[in-house]
User: Fold Glycosyltransferase family 2 protein from Psychroserpens burtonensis.
Amino acid sequence: MNLRQFIPSLEPIKDKDFNFTFSVFTPLYNAEKTIERVHQSLLNQSFTDFEWIIINDGSSDKSHDVIQNIVASSPLTINYINNASNKHKMACFFQAIHIANGRLFLTFDADDECLPDSLEIFNTEYYTLSKEQRSDIIAVTGLCKDQNGNTIGSQFPSNPLISNPFEIKAIKNIKGEKWGFTRTTHLQSIKFDDCFIVNGFMMEGIIWNLLAKHGYQTKYINTVVRIYHTNVANSISSVGDDKTALGSVVYYVALYNWFFKSHARKAPMFFFKRLYFLLSKSKFLDLNLKNYTTSIDSFLIKFLVVLLWPFRKFFK
Assistant:
């Protein structure tokens, strides 16, 4: 198996007309107790030019009944899809992107809240950029706080900061949960083999890194826009290492193939730590050493994988 087959690519961006400014997408699995919190957050928004896409990913609780009641009584424009079986979050993500009718795509998990002016802040921050700037800057991302009012993770070193998701983690070492939107046209231009979806549990970060690889940037702001509820299990993504291993390994292989040559000197420890993670996750896959060496571009990383392969059983 060549792991490259799981790595998505980006086709030329095509302009398109949309009916809304935002498509707010909520994937959920067994969220009957928290989905109303999301609904109330959206009802409270000062900026109202949005649609709400809900995809119920084969829930086994009463989520479907709760959502049907919301759809029947809510004044919001809601596009609801009830998957008969569990397809996993990444499959739901692309389901939503395919039907999105808003220019800006924002994922909003089924157990969180946003502030009443969150969409207004996002809209203002993006459209204060010039049209020329918006050709390269395709996203805005802000800060989160927990349900107790504590800001989560690092602030950005400047406000605003123009960067991309790879540099934010690898170079600037920004930590903690953040929240933001991305231009829908760019997400709709992502091309992937079906195996990327049917194998489930692919890491969402590979999508943001793909856009960064192609030179697209994000405007980062030190403004709190989301309330992220901590110590709450997110059932749509809480799975074991055996299920997430393939997605993690593909993510790390893509990191090396896209960024190692250009950024190795700037962030050597970042890449060596990811090598440890790659080998640690590889223990859960029935793949041989050649599957990795034929998938990785860098000769140095190939060499290190071969060198460390006998010791991966000790990696936690």
Summary: The mean pLDDT is 94.
